[in-house]
Amino acid sequence: MKKTNRSNNAASIWTVFIVLALMLAFAGCETLDFANPNSPEISSATMQTLVTGAEGFMRADLDVYLQVVITIGREGYFFEGADPRFTGELLNGPIDPGGFLTTRPWSARYQVIFNCNELLNRAASMDAADAAGVEAYAKTVRAYQLLLNLNYLDDQGIRLNYDGDLTVPFATKAEAFDAIEQDLNEAMTALGNAGDAFPFALSSGFAGFDTPATFGRFNRALAARVAVYRGDFSGALTALGQSFLDAGGDLNAGVQHSYSTAANDELNPVFEVRTTPALKLHAHMSFEADAEAGDLRFANKTFKRGVEDVLDDLRSDLAITTTSSSTDPFPIIRNEELILLRAEANVGLGNYGEAETDMNIVRAAAGLAALAGTDATNGLDRLLHEKRYSLFAEGHRWIDMRRYGKLSELPIDRPGRDRVIEHMAIPETERSESN
């Protein structure tokens, strides 16, 4: 006997309702052809609705995901006086497998995957070029969602069966990476057969990456991130060469989650008014203490409030200001990360001069002097420092420090009480009655 897998089967019950709302926000007045709007079925959703729903729902519970990874990675703290889990469970454990910090981001990713799988089913009945475009989009997005959940659970692995059967074991971390890479590579191959345009529209968050040719650069950017995570540094350099990396370009260029004040749309989950007395998301004080004098990344990403907020023996006077309004986009992957991924790959390969050149690109943009003498003794630490400040509060610090066995270097503000959590718990919704 098995229980229903809410991260897979529940999506089929209410994803249609979600994509309807997202469709209204993303695509205005397009006709939504449902035979019975009081009892919609996924089979009634148009292809555009499924694409729009997948893209829109990639943002679902992103705020919770970021609150978790920012807190555990000691980039900041989320001061929510009504919920002690943010200053307790995330800082000293144990992680509740049934709590929303675990289950909501996890389930949201599989709800997107549900849409992607339905798109892949639809592709079988399309003409060759359209089918290739749909396959490329669905597999790229699916790979990205799986990667986020793997970030959450790390060496515990993730679920790769989508049939709701909870008796099927989780894939191992290596198997999960294999599946993610396979999706990305198969998507890239499909893009070569997808013609000049997709048979669907993407939002403004994909501006410049909304044709098969340009979407491929996004696909390779994700492939480079995965390759670096796996320690495949040569593979990462190959993927970066096919991505949108531009050493002389806008560091913020890339693919983004878009937001608006339109009905049923979402607002940027990181934005808060920096002077509000009830500020929740604070930067960790070490972000200031460890910053180099004159680093514009510290100046631009935080705001000194002039008052120290205190909750549960934790304190900070720094607001996170990576966004300036509630409708600012939030990056999925951007040029600055790609430059630093190339530096990271070169550090891994012992090419310290090339790595230093790339690190100095982002340092120059931050108003800092160039590095010199990068070598085996300091290359990795320098790289992680640049990633910490360039990609602050974008969801990378915890994953980066964990990959290099450096979690013990993260600050502990309440000695004897706190520790650094290595991974989130396997969600309770993924457990069968037989285990």
Topology (SSEs and partners):
Elements: H1 9-27, H2 47-57, H3 62-72, E1 76-78, H4 89-92, H5 100-123, H6 128-153, H7 173-191, H8 212-230, H9 233-241, E2 254-257, E3 281-283, H10 286-289, H11 296-301, E4 302-311, E5 314-320, E6 330-334, H12 335-349, H13 352-365, H14 379-390, H15 397-403
Antiparallel strand pairs: 1-3, 2-6, 4-5
Helix pairs in contact: 1-2, 1-5, 2-5, 3-5, 5-6, 6-7, 6-8, 7-8, 8-9, 8-12, 9-12, 12-13, 12-14, 13-14
If you compute it from the alpha carbons, what radius of gyration comes out, rounded to the nearest whole angstrom? 21 Å
Terminal CA distance reads: 11 Å
Give the topology string: H per helix, E per strand: HHHEHHHHHHEEHHEEEHHHH
Strand % is: 5-15%
Multimerization state = single chain
| Structural class designation | mainly alpha
Walkthrough of the structure:
The N terminus is likely disordered. The protein has a two-stranded antiparallel sheet. It has a two-stranded antiparallel sheet with strand order 2-6. Strands 4-5 form a two-stranded antiparallel sheet. Helix 7 packs antiparallel against helix 8. The chain is mainly alpha-helical. The protein has a domain of 40 residues. It contains 15 helices and 6 strands.
What characteristics describe this protein?
435 residues; mainly alpha; two-stranded antiparallel sheet; two-stranded antiparallel ribbon; 6 strands
Task: Report a brief summary of the structure.
This protein has helices spanning 9-27, 47-57, 62-72, 89-92, 100-123, 128-153, 173-191, 212-230, 233-241, 286-289, 296-301, 335-349, 352-365, 379-390, 397-403, and strands at residues 76-78, 254-257, 281-283, 302-311, 314-320, 330-334. Helix 1 (9-27) packs across helix 2 (47-57), helix 8 packs across helix 12 (335-349) and helix 12 (335-349) packs antiparallel against helix 13 (352-365).
